[in-house]
Amino acid sequence: MQIRRAQFKDITAIMKLLSQVLEIHASIRPDIFIPGTTKYTVEELTTIINDDQKAVFVVVDEDDQVLGYAFTQLQEQPFSTNMVQFKSLFIDDLWVLWADSTQRSQGVGRALLDYVKAEAKRLGCYEVTLNVWVGNDSAINFYKKNGLKVKETNMEFIL
């Protein structure tokens, strides 16, 4: 297993994984997500892969097949009258392929998350942040198990 920056050759595999995670989100929030779609188009993904502020990391097996990805974005909080200045590495999306339940708990997701944490440290970030949908219990449990804590809560009132 190796973790590296995503390359153009990885786009097809990443798009397949993006469709899998979208189906999870669509099952949780069918009022918001459209099944059979992806978060990004091939063109958008190509742009993101080439953007240093939005690094995409992939975990690959010994045959260089993509097993998972982490989309990240460097964010900076400027100094203001009420907040100190700091940098944050935001995980826009993280997903690991599980062909079946026997492939879970093999450490792939943890390795990818640890890699992102190390990258954030290298960049001088104060924190790593992400959003997770209520109802995505396996993701919530994974993040909690790996040391993430709730920072703030986003609430809605559906009209």
Provide the low-confidence segments as ranges: none
- According to CATH, the fold-level topology is Aminopeptidase
Terminal CA distance reads 47 Å
Spell out the helices and strands N to C. EHHEEEHEH
**Rg result:** 16 Å
* Largest sheet: spatial strand order: 1-2-3-4-5
Instruction: Give the CATH level 1 class.
Output: Alpha Beta
Number of domains: 1
Beta strands, count: 5
Describe the sheet with the most strands. 5 strands, mixed
What is the mean predicted local confidence, pLDDT?
92
What's the total helix number? Answer: 4
Percent strand = 15-25%
How does the helix and strand content classify structurally?
A: alpha+beta
Helix content: 25-40%
Instruction: Look at the structure and name the CATH superfamily.
Output: Gcn5-related N-acetyltransferase (GNAT)
Approximate shape = globular
Q: In terms of topology, how is this protein built?
A:
Blueprint: E1 2-5, H1 11-28, H2 42-49, E2 56-60, E3 66-77, E4 86-96, H3 108-122, E5 127-130, H4 137-145
Parallel strand pairs: 4-5
Antiparallel strand pairs: 1-2, 2-3, 3-4
Pfam families: Acetyltransf_1
Domain N-acetyltransferase: 1-159
Keywords: Acyltransferase, Transferase
Summary of the model, kept short:
The chain is of the alpha+beta class and 159 residues long. It has four helices and five strands, in the order βααβββαβα. It has one domain (2-145): 3-Layer(aba) Sandwich (Aminopeptidase).
